[in-house]
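A.,

Following up on our hallway conversation. Structure tokens first:
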């Protein structure tokens, strides 16, 4: 028989396995499986998240933190836990059942290209209210994404999954920043990736901006890229935005709100409280609207989940086949790129050996003498934009000379004066039609990152004007603050010019080779 709690009092949910009847699986994540279930004494449908901490390598601290945090939560827009308990090596977390499932699930099932703007505004306003509460209470959520925005049967929206959340104010000393590296790369703020100065609740605002793009397009920027590439693109490229041709349907207030969140310098991002005042949210409607607009006619959550699993399995099988072809193609492009630039590996090694010791460090040279750049080529190529045929990049995690993010790129001069002339010719031949059209995240139909017209022009300009004798070029986030971080004065001037032209965060020299080689191929009439 159901027991009733007094007004204002929280019901005490039973903490015995026998008190729950588990039904179908309705979700799974990195560490858990979630079931629809019935709490027998209350005759209430709930969700039970089961985490096997033995299988998950026993991050018991993380898991209990998640459970404790969830039980203490008290806000209509944040999913709380009714209770949690340990059964063998499983932790059971009992939560309210969110019958609509996550926004990611809803999009995958019915709106693969994303939601309409007023649906997004309504959902995001609720999420922001939840974030405002969490930040006020000293939490960083650290995993804001569509997969963690849950909708109940009435269209009410809650931010879920504290799998990686932690107290911002540690045991009384109110330490505001943390130095751990957790989260999901696509939504991860640059400062979290850098792990240099720690991060604070503003990391959630970046993830919130990425989530807004995810809801607008049906997927997060760079979502088809491997994690390492996502890291590089987030750190090196301009922040993603809602500015491509396909985004014309969205209002300028939406674009502006996203641009405010996706600023690389966290101190310049607004708080959740301030964001809520943005005019974009004026179009937000009620939960009934969400229910009518996106939940009506949806199959049951369990059925949707099973259908998605089948679809996912098919995609994985297809991808396995494609990956074989892709690896071969990539290898061919790599070889072609090398020959286009007439690379001489031994000569490059010899050049590197001539560079004084202090310079070597900045070049990211390892004990074998800049070999990292040469022998990591395959891996790097996989992580570079489509067609990047040569990698003249050394990563230096220990370069203390540069005031950057710890990733240093060295552009070693592959260009003879003849090659530069060829490049110049190529640029004058390359018409705008040769360029890919600007896309919001630069991902082409094959899932490769492709440069836009303006990027090509910029990088060609960069390749031509860059002093190839210059060995150190920082790729640090010269985002909207445009702080120059080049050590050498000449490079600094070059950098400043570049920043004036493109002040929103691109210092990406990665692609010089990509574009230069593309141009070279075009000039030489080689099929690219
Ligand atoms: N209370 C709930 N009601 C309905 N569905 C839920 C509920 N909690 C979670 N889910 C579904 O289960 C999925 C996985 O849950 P959750 O994100 O908590 O697991 P996780 O292992 O922590 O995931 P992550 O990969 O984000 O770390 C969610 O994306 C959502 O679709």
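Then the amino acids I'd put at each of the 528 positions:
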């Amino acid at each position: 028989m159901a027991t009733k709690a007094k007004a204002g009092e929280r019901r005490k949910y039973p903490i015995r396995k026998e008190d729950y009847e588990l039904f179908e699986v309705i979700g799974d994540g990195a560490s858990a499986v979630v079931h629809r279930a019935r709490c027998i004494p209350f005759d209430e449908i709930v969700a039970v998240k089961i985490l096997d901490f033995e299988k998950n390598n026993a991050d018991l601290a993380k898991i209990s933190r998640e459970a404790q945090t969830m039980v203490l939560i008290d806000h209509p827009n944040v999913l709380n836990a009714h209770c949690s308990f340990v059964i063998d090596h499983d932790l059971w977390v009992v939560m309210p059942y969110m019958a609509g499932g996550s926004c990611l699930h809803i999009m995958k099932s019915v709106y693969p290209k994303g939601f309409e703007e007023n649906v997004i505004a309504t959902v995001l306003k609720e999420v922001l209210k939840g974030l405002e509460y969490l930040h006020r209470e000293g939490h960083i959520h650290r995993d804001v994404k569509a997969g963690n925005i849950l909708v109940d049967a009435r269209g009410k929206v809650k931010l879920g999954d504290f799998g990686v959340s932690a107290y911002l104010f540690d045991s009384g000393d109110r330490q505001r920043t943390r130095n751990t590296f957790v989260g999901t790369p696509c939504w991860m703020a640059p400062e979290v990736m850098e792990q240099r100065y720690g991060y604070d609740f503003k990391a959630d605002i970046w993830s919130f901006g990425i989530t807004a793009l995810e809801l607008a397009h049906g997927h997060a920027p760079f979502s088809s890229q491997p994690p390492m590439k996502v890291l590089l693109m987030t750190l090196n490229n301009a922040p993603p935005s809602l500015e491509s041709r396909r985004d014309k349907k969205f209002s300028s207030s939406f674009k502006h709100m996203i641009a405010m969140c996706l600023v690389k310098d966290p101190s310049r991002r607004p708080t959740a409280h301030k964001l809520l005042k943005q005019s974009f949210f004026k179009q937000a409607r009620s939960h009934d609207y969400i229910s009518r607009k996106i939940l009506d006619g949806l199959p049951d959550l369990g059925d949707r989940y099973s259908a998605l699993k089948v679809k996912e399995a098919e995609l994985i099988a297809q991808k396995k086949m494609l990956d074989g072809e892709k690896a071969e193609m990539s290898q061919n492009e790599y070889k072609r790129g090398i020959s286009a630039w007439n690379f001489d590996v031994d000569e490059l090694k010899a050049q590197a050996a001539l560079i004084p010791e202090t310079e070597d460090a900045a070049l990211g040279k390892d004990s074998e003498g800049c070999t990292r750049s040469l022998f990591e080529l395959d891996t790097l190529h996989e992580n570079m934009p489509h067609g990047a045929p040569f990698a003249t990049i050394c990563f230096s995690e220990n370069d203390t000379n540069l005031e950057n993010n710890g990733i240093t790129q060295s552009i070693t001069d592959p260009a003879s004066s003849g090659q530069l002339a060829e490049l110049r010719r190529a640029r004058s031949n390359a018409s705008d039609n040769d360029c890919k059209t600007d896309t919001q995240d630069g991902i082409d139909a094959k899932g490769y990152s492709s440069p836009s017209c303006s990027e090509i022009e910029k990088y060609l300009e960069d390749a031509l004007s860059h002093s190839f004798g210059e060995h150190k070029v920082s790729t640090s986030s010269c985002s909207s603050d445009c702080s120059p971080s080049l050590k050498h004065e000449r490079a600094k001037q070059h950098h400043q010019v570049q920043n004036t032209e493109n002040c929103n965060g691109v210092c990406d020299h990665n692609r010089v080779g990509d574009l230069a080689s593309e141009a070279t191929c075009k000039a030489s009439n080689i099929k690219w």
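Residues 164-183, 329-528 have pLDDT under 50 and may be disordered. Curious whether your intuition agrees with the design.

B.
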